[in-house]
Amino acid sequence: MAIVRNDTGVTMLLDGHAIVPGAICECSEQEADNLSRCGWTIVNEDVTDKNASNASSGSLRPAGKRGLNLEPVSPYMSLETYYLDASIGLPKPPKPFIKGGNLQYPMADNDRLGDCTIAGIIHYAQIAAAICGVNYTYPGDAVTESFYYGLTGGSDTGLELSQVISAVSKPNPLGFEIVGAATVNISDYDLLQTVLWNFGALYLAVDLPESAESDFSQRLPWILTNSPGNPIGGHCIVANGTEPDLPTNPPLNDKLFDIITWADKTECDLPWWLQYGVQAIVLLPKWYVTAKHDALQHLDEAHMLADLQTISNAR
Length: 315
Prior knowledge:
Elements: E1 2-5, E2 12-14, E3 17-19, E4 24-27, H1 29-36, E5 41-43, H2 50-56, H3 116-132, H4 141-152, H5 161-167, E6 178-183, H6 189-199, E7 202-209, H7 210-217, E8 231-241, E9 256-261, E10 264-269, H8 270-276, E11 277-285, H9 286-290, H10 301-314
Antiparallel strand pairs: 1-4, 1-5, 2-3, 6-11, 7-8, 7-11, 8-9, 9-10
Helix pairs in contact: 5-10
């Protein structure tokens, strides 16, 4: 195998994946030889420039497992339902941003179990804790596995987002409790980034294409190609910003999401999200109420809590 860098100045397709300028990827030696005649550069594994060190770090990073059972309909009301004043809504972000960008996110068993929904809720908890100044410690793999199997009935069958949301709507072994949940329109980028700015994270469901796993392994962003791949299964991820963060040159366009999954970060552009995104849920951590988080002044907290309890009790 060989490692090559796209030095053509344009995004190009390689084995069905969109490779942005400056990105590093792995291919066969014969492919590398052919690409070198088209403006690509064959690089060594020990190359030390920023793109190579971040793209490979000496080896590919492994993608974890999927395990999200997609729901036909979200049981949660839209966020706008809870606005105290619909004409005001929520404050808009002044510029691209990222929340919890310096945190270390655990795999949370998602390398061997299809517990991406549990890993996602733990990552959400880390971001929320950082925003509120709460000392949150990952409860460990054993607790995570036990919590997951407690919800699945003992088998590695995956979960729906709402199953996990209901489980953390009361005290639980993960140490993260919420007092509200609402659906956010997956097609409304302005609303999605506004919610991210105010709450720090979104709990997302995607119907993942196969290319996403290999792109993640190569530290490439998830972008939509001219020939979108077929989905291979549901996966839970967490969005935590809209700021270009991967060492791509040039960076993604100005409409993107920072993503946490499989113990690391990636990005997706808006066309990719619109193609594969299924659900976007904003959660209201109990910590936000205690800390009197700014965004709460715009919401009817009591209404959100009552609806969450009704849905959770019905499950």
